[in-house]
Amino acid sequence: MDEMMTRFVSNTHRRTDPDWPADTVAAFSAPDISAVHRSLPEYRPTPLLSLPNLAHELGIGEILVKDESHRFGLKAFKALGSAYAIYRFVQKHLHEAGRQYPPADQFYRESTLPKGTFVFCTATDGNHGRGVAWIARKLSQRAVIYMPTNSARARIQNIRKEGAEVIVVDGTYDDAVARCAKDALAHGWQIISDTSWPGYEEIPRWIQAGYLTMFGEIHANNDADIDIVIVPAGVGALAAAAAWYYNRVYPEPRPKLVSVEPVGADCLLQSILSETGEPVSLKGELASIMAGLNCGTPSQVAWPFVKLGFDLFMTVTDDAAREAMRTYYYPKGEDPRIISGESGAAGLAALLTLCNESSIAAADARAHLDLSPSTKVLLLNTEGDTDPEGFKSIIS
Ligand SMILES: Cc1ncc(COP(=O)(O)O)c(C=O)c1O
Predict the structure, then answer these.
(1) Using one digit for the tens of pLDDT, what is the confidence trace for 72-83?
(2) In the listed set 154, 173, 199, which residue is the last one of a domain according to the structure?
(3) For 264, left (φ over 0), alpha (ψ -120 to 50), or beta?
(4) Selected catalytic residue, list 66, 67, 75, 125
(5) Ligand 1 atom with the shortest distance to the CA of 128
């Protein structure tokens, strides 16, 4: 098997009515998630766009794109997670300290947390760390953000602009996670990580739950009859939220769920294929341009949801991501133009690959997903041009 080829893996662990861990189910079922986001002055639902000409060209019924490049002015969906998790963490702290705190729908307008109470820290490839730094600044707290060696300069600068300290670690995203955990222990800092590991689970559960606001917005009018949802995946936290939403909240008939990862950074796909069906860590460099998806280890609390709730796991090449960025940027006919970064474009890269590839594996994947001329596909453009220079060089 060529390691650098696109792969399609149908999920033999899929369950129609999964039995999921109660503590994570409780986090997903919390009633205050969207209220917390509404308390942010920058909150607006992001656009849901249709690309009829591209759908026609690909021979499918409809392509809808949830465009997270407009989220909070941060150009990525990620702060939905940190905003909710930090609210839950601070609320718990203030409650235990016997102090007053504002209700969810006013939380970020009327914070009562004294300045400098916490140092929030996390590892990131850019978007999650920017979200943590943004929320820390709103609450007048310190933030220390760890990034892998190959992080784009613009992504580092955007985090520094929020007043956070950035530490560039000599290594991958997974190395940055380990260094952040070590420093947090040494200094008594509070980790706000989107990935989880044994013994560090509560905050990543809240982060996953925060992503549900995106799905709630997409289906606010209850008029979408989606057949396939394609989710760009790194550690799988967004995928876990999608698994929960489309297996439990969304009415039947439910859409098929597809996870897309970069070739060479496919920790979810490899975990699905592992003998035990348990998460495996990848060895090696993780050199994809899809920085947000360049992760070698699935999140512990995300895994059961991804494992039981998804239908297909696939990988895409960097070239496919570049082509998808250009396809969004140079639309067909009257289709709207969409600004999509490398990771954000992975969903469209997966759809283009699925529709256009002539291999037997691709044909099997199309059959597994019942892809037909009437199929309605939902894509999540999870980021815009968070690295403007890289973006320009790809679309020009
Ligand atoms: C733009 C973008 N899309 C998708 C993802 C994947 O999210 P997760 O790591 O929860 O799988 C990330 C993660 O950082 C991201 O930045």
Answers:
(1) 999 999 999 999
(2) 199
(3) left
(4) 125
(5) 14
The pair of structure tokens assigned to 194 is 């989107």
- 301 pLDDT higher than 50: yes
Q: Give, in order, the Cα–Cα distances in Å from 317 to each of 4, 102, 345.
A: 8, 46, 11
Q: What are phi and psi of 313, to 5 degrees?
A: -115, 130
Co-location of 162 and 308 in the same domain: no
Q: Is the CB of 242 under 6 A from ligand 1?
A: no
- Any domain includes 2: no
Cβ of 210 less than 6 Å from ligand 1: no
User: Per the domain annotation, does 1 fall within a domain?
Assistant: no
Range 99-118 average pLDDT = 94
- Are residues 225 and 354 located together in one domain of the fold? yes
Q: Over the stretch 289-300, which tens digit does the pLDDT of each residue have?
A: 999 999 999 999
294 and 189 both lie in a single domain:
no
Tell me the pLDDT band of 283, cut-offs 50, 70 and 90.
confident
CATH number at residue 108: 3.40.50.1100
Q: 69: which 2 tokens?
A: 């490049």
Same domain, 225 and 248: yes
Is 332 annotated in the active site?
Answer: no
Q: Are residues 213 and 139 in the same domain?
A: no
What's the domain range around 333? Answer: 8-76+208-395
Give the Å distance between the CA of 94 and the centre of ligand 1: 30
- How many domains does the chain fold into? 2
Q: Where are the beta strands (DSSP E) in the chain?
A: 8-10, 48-50, 62-67, 119-123, 142-147, 165-168, 190-191, 228-232, 256-262, 312-316, 376-381
Residue 150, C-beta contacts closer than 8 angstroms, at least 6 positions apart: 287, 291
Has residue 224 got a pLDDT over 70? no
If one residue of 46, 82, 127, 342 were mutated to test the ligand 1 pocket, choosing by the most ligand atoms within 8 A of its CB, it would be: 127
Ligand 1: does its nearest atom lie under 6 Å from the Cβ of 51? no
Q: What's the pTM value of the predicted model, to 2 decimals?
A: 0.97
Is residue 145 within 8 Å of 164, Cβ to Cβ? yes
In this structure, are 235 and 356 located in the same domain?
Answer: yes
